[in-house]
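re: the backbone from monday

yeah here it is again, tokenized this time
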């Protein structure tokens, strides 16, 4: 499920054409109150599916715009953060992200995974404060690089700045060794050089298992 908040209509149409899943949107020509209503309704739909034992993945674009919308409609708490952001306006966006969880099998199973984007380097102090409030709260951070995108290097990911918590729970012992070795090897490289090197290695193999096997032979 893809939730687009305060997005351009053209982006909504393009996302619907991709066919990646159900697209729910509130475009930029609608009110902030409407943005918040659509987000809450979408979250409730996800919760009902999880309660029925389903596994739901929601992509939210973006948590920054959702927080802005709440800042517009929430009554002031009397405490204003830097950038004109009211402290109480972040409560509901935080609860939104906090809804992501895995339900135990004895309780019916099901899970909700939320992948949310955050805007950075927009020149807005409010956007920066929102980013800082949510930074470090997720289990995984994938940092995109404008420089790589400008150079048409895809995926435009800053490998050094991106990481996953508790990766030892997701990877096998061999995969974890290779992952950490490659991180150390690429840590001193420029982001563009690091991605080029990783893509070069991946093109030489047909699967992750083959890549890991070759890498282990060199460790």
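seq for it, each position gets an aa:
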């Amino acid at each position: 499920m893809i939730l687009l908040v305060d997005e351009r209509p053209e982006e909504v149409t393009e996302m619907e054409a991709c066919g990646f899943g159900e697209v729910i949107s509130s475009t930029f020509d609608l009110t902030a109150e409407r943005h918040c209503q659509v987000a809450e309704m979408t979250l409730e739909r996800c919760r009902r599916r999880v309660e029925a034992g389903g596994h739901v993945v929601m992509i939210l674009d973006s948590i920054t715009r959702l927080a802005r919308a709440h800042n517009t409609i929430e009554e002031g708490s009397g405490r204003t953060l830097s950038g004109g952001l009211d402290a109480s306006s972040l409560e509901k966006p935080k609860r939104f992200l906090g809804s992501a969880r895995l339900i135990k099998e004895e309780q019916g199973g099901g899970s909700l995974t939320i992948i949310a984007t955050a805007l950075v380097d927009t020149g807005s102090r409010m956007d920066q404060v929102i980013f800082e409030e949510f930074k470090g709260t997720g289990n995984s951070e994938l940092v995109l690089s404008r420089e790589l995108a400008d150079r048409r290097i895809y995926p435009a990911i800053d490998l050094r700045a991106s990481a996953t918590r508790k990766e030892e729970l997701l990877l096998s012992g061999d995969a974890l060794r290779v992952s950490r070795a490659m991180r150390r090897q690429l840590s001193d490289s420029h982001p563009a050089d690091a991605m080029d090197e990783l893509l070069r290695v991946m093109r030489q193999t047909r699967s992750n298992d083959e890549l890991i096997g070759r890498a282990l032979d060199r460790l």
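The first helix runs from residue 9 to 18. The mean pLDDT is 89.
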